[in-house]
Amino acid sequence: LHQDHIVGSFFRLSHRPSWRYLGIGEEEARAFSREVEAAWKEFAEDDCCCIDVERKRTFTMMIREGVAMHAFNGELFVQATWDTSSSRLFRTQFRMVSPKRISNPNNTGDSRNCRAGVQINDSGAALGYYVSEDGYPGWMPQKWTWIPRELPGGRASFIHVFEPVEDGQTRGANVFYSVMEQMKMLDTLQNTQLQSAIVKAMYAATIESELDTQSAMDFILGANSQEQRERLTGWIGEIAAYYAAAPVRLGGAKVPHLMPGDSLNLQTAQDTDNGYSVFEQSLLRYIAAGLGVSYEQLSRNYAQMSYSTARASANESWAYFMGRRKFVASRQASQMFLCWLEEAIVRRVVTLPSKARFSFQEARSAWGNCDWIGSGRMAIDGLKEVQEAVMLIEAGLSTYEKECAKRGDDYQEIFAQQVRETMERRAAGLKPPAWAAAAFESGLRQSTEEEKSDSRAA
């Protein structure tokens, strides 16, 4: 849920260097950004996964993994490494590090300057991290490697992203702690309901006879006299002969005829809900509130929802996801991007504007300033939301950049594609699609009439 709504299928870079602070022109900054974005996409989304030390993930996959890691552990770790091979243009690589591997050396207790595997200074700032080496298959002695947070030149060496809730905190907190009890209750409730459903599906068939109690006990418990044994044997023989002589079938199924005085009864369990559905919804709502998502998204139950209710629920979750994108996914992505940008500038894959006031080492944040475009907002009613976007742009309350970003698109790519399509249509002798505007106006009028009729009906 977090991966799909925060990151999506492609985590797109929107490079925006602080051109005023750097002392360059806006056009120079745009030209530089286009070069950077093209080179970054070639490096980050390479199908050979050269950005990953393990050669398993692209950049977007690493961001998705980081978001999932943060959702379960409250923090994420990424190690920036340097590839010694000379077969590739860029040597910068990254390694995803599990939070379980960050611990104090030799599993010792915390001290003033080393807490939970994080070495800090007297002010509480992290200086480095102790990472336990992979001891697979298990018989190797455990070793720890100290990795500095930054190299002497300012390049990030170990990326640690978490949201502290108090001073002195060195590690993140699992967000599932607040709802762990309810999740266990929900699991127990579902297992109990499954057992109840299995019991309800079972039935017992009994044949009841009008035989008196004394005779039935004699037959069941047996008797010592020869006469009783003969009577029991004769009675069982009569029953067997009777049922063997009545092979009546209906549609291929056998319908037995019972002896006079016998009756066939089916015993079933009571079919009661006992408030299971209401209790399950209550637990899911509590869990959804603790995780910052809506009940409908967590349960995938959108029944009995109006457009207004669905939109309000989606907007509330969207605000939560945007916060996570800004403070988790974007922080991880920006620090990884800065490591690559430094190498790209040194290798002259991209060239800084000549009139810049500061070098890259002097203004890392200004040169690496960027936004990240992830998945778009869920469209509940596509027509109404497009109408809203058009009205906001026409009223001057929004821009194409913001509205396209809400849909997970880059407005520059859309504009460039529209220019290409327009030129191709003209070259092919095709007229502009005037029907599109007419169709939009018709849809707008129809939607307005429907809203008026709904308000009158209410």
UniProtKB/TrEMBL annotation:
InterPro entries: Phage_lambda_portal. GO terms for biological process: virion assembly. GO terms for molecular function: structural molecule activity. NCBIfam families: portal_lambda (TIGR01539). This is Phage portal protein. It comes from Escherichia coli.
